[in-house]
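hiii so um. not sure if this is the right channel but i have a protein structure encoded as tokens and i wanna go backwards to a sequence. like what aa goes where. can anyone help
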């Protein structure tokens, strides 16, 4: 076990070890390059250097109203919800738009997996909390914009070891020349996991090349390969089973060999000229999954999606503007088979599903006497089709959405400013949600409708040299809210339905305080109510969240202490099962030694018992996926 030696090293290095001031940054996720931020926003930069997490969710834990779960189940991937949007996801991220260097990695139907992005590539993360369909269209209950670090000449090898047989090896080589910059990242990681039947292994290759063309134009091409030969799913437990042995897996998940095998290729290109920014991408993903039931319990999914977009911006006198056009297509070849105790049985479903999108938008901002007025309007056309090879349930849906947004910003002084924003959002059901037909037949669930939302937001910003804080109030109404559930006849399979109108309202606070020249305290708090029309809280959305991070520098050594509080939440839509609140504390210590960077860390240092994930409305009370107890890591990065 690594815990005792790392604890000793933490206290030994602490006596050896000035938090860098955050640079002024332009919030590119809001599209328009303006001095103001009319959307509530969080920016993560310097703290990325301290991370020893194995997934992106570990970088987002201090953002108000943003809740991260399923960080330790690599079959279902990290799940993220913002103000309750995305909470229904049964795997990956749902209802939130995710971008990498401005290129969408969210599929046209609104699903996102982050497993193909190496953490060492990320240089900055921007998060927009609140409806953003006026900027990004479908499934924009929030926006997470990942931005690659600049390519500089470097070469390093990273080795990380941790409890539960966690191992990671990564190598980065990059070369920056006068007109060309190239970077290659290769990583391999595996882990046995805290729980039985939760092991995983994967390999990732990422290549980036940026070239300066004639007349100041720039072309950037990225390619990534992600291969996961296996990731086991330990499943959900009842509370009684958790009390007996929180490390155990659900028996059916072992019997049916629940888990997945994934391979993905992605290539993208982005060209920037004096007046235009354009992109194109293509992604091919194959998934072989086994679920813990017989009929339809094995899934073969072949997916490819591609898209392109272009935009141009301008400024004249007191005006700023941008307009653009985006288009994307998604093709899913979905097959289901019987799962005969882990072996593939007879075919139960065979259908091709297509999702097409075309969207155009415009943004304009006008400034006058310290006031700034911004408006945005986006129109999207969606076409969803199904070809059923086993039945006669082929169908077609055409959906049109118009998403307006307006914002008013006033700077009262060099320290105090405020804004008022109203915006809308829409979210279509994903192809996976539509194909989960509770009737047991093939074809789409024809009763499932898109959800539509409107939101009002008021924000106040206060900024001094050593202290800044941002307070936000929001009120959101959603029609045709989509929620997940299970049925006794298909225990372990998720279905989806519209549950009517929901109301979200809350308060958010975040800021930074440089208490001493070498120490900085970052803090965040959020309190919200997320209720259906019958006054029930949305499941798996905590009402209260609180986090603080203290970073202290001692010469070349940095100490970071993150403390989080996650409030009570419910496991079911009827609010009969309450999940208890919890506190956790993570400690990291990082020190530079010549050409080596050593990072030591302990997650959940107080050994708190809590749940990594809650399976919403699970049949038979199997709501709970226990989180790991105290977990120690050591990482060494050697520059060569």
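sure thing!! here u go:
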């Amino acid at each position: 076990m690594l815990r005792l030696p790392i604890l000793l090293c933490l206290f030994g290095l602490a006596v050896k070890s000035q938090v860098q001031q955050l640079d002024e940054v332009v919030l590119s996720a809001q599209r328009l390059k303006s001095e103001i931020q009319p959307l509530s926003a969080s920016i993560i930069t310097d703290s990325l250097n301290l991370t020893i997490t194995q997934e992106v969710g570990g970088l987002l834990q201090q953002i108000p109203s943003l809740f991260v779960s399923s960080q330790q189940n690599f079959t279902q991937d990290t799940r993220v919800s913002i103000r309750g949007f995305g909470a229904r996801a049964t795997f990956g991220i749902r209802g939130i738009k995710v971008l990498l260097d401005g290129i969408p990695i969210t599929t046209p139907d609104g699903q996102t997996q982050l497993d193909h992005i190496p953490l060492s590539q990320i240089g900055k993360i921007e998060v927009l909390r609140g409806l953003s369909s006026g900027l990004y269209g479908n499934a924009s209950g929030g926006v997470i914009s990942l931005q690659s670090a600049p390519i500089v000449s470097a070469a390093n090898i990273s080795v990380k070891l941790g409890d539960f047989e966690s191992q990671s090896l990564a190598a980065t080589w990059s070369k920056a020349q006068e007109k060309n910059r190239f970077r290659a990242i290769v990583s391999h990681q595996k882990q046995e996991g805290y729980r039985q039947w939760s092991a995983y292994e994967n390999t990732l290759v990422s290549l980036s090349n940026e070239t300066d063309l004639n007349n100041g134009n720039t072309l950037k091409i990225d390619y990534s390969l992600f291969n996961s030969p296996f990731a086991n799913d330990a499943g959900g437990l009842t509370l009684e089973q958790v009390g007996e042995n929180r490390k155990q897996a659900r028996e059916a998940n072992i019997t049916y060999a629940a888990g997945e095998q994934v391979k993905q290729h992605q290539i993208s290109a982005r060209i920037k000229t004096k007046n235009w920014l354009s992109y194109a991408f293509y992604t091919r993903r194959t998934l072989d999954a086994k679920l813990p039931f017989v009929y339809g319990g094995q899934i073969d999914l072949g997916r490819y999606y591609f898209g392109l977009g272009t935009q141009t911006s301008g400024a004249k006198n007191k005006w700023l503007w941008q307009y653009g056009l985006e288009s994307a297509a998604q093709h899913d070849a979905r097959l289901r088979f019987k799962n005969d105790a882990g072996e593939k049985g007879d075919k139960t479903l065979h259908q091709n599903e297509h999702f097409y999108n075309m969207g155009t938008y415009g943004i304009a901002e006008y400034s006058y006497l310290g006031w700034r007025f911004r408006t945005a309007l986006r129109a999207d056309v969606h076409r969803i089709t199904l070809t059923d090879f086993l039945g006669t349930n082929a169908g077609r849906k055409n959906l049109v959405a118009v998403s307006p947004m307006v914002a008013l910003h006033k700077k009262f002084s060099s320290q105090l400013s405020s804004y008022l924003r109203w915006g809308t959002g829409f979210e279509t059901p994903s192809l996976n949600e539509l194909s989960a037909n509770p009737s047991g037949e093939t074809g789409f669930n024809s009763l499932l409708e898109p959800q539509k939302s409107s939101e009002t937001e008021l924000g106040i910003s206060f900024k001094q040299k050593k202290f800044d804080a941002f307070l936000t109030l929001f009120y959101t109404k959603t029609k045709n809210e989509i929620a997940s559930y299970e049925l006794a006849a298909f225990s372990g399979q998720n279905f989806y339905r519209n549950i009517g109108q929901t109301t979200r309202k809350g308060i958010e606070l975040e800021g930074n305080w440089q208490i001493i020249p070498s120490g900085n305290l970052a803090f965040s708090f959020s309190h919200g109510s997320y209720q259906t029309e019958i006054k029930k809280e949305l499941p798996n959305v905590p009402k209260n969240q609180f986090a603080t991070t203290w970073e202290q520098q001692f010469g070349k050594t940095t100490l970071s202490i993150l403390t989080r509080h996650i409030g009570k939440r419910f496991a079911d839509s009827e609010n009969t099962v309450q999940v208890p609140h919890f506190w956790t504390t993570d400690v990291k210590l990082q020190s530079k030694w010549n050409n080596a960077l050593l990072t030591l860390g302990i997650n959940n240092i107080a050994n708190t018992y809590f749940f990594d994930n809650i399976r919403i409305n699970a049949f038979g009370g199997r709501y709970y996926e226990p989180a790991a107890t105290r977990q120690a890591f050591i990482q060494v990065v050697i520059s060569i």
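oh and The domain at 3-17+30-639 is CATH 2.40.170.20 (Maltoporin; Chain A).
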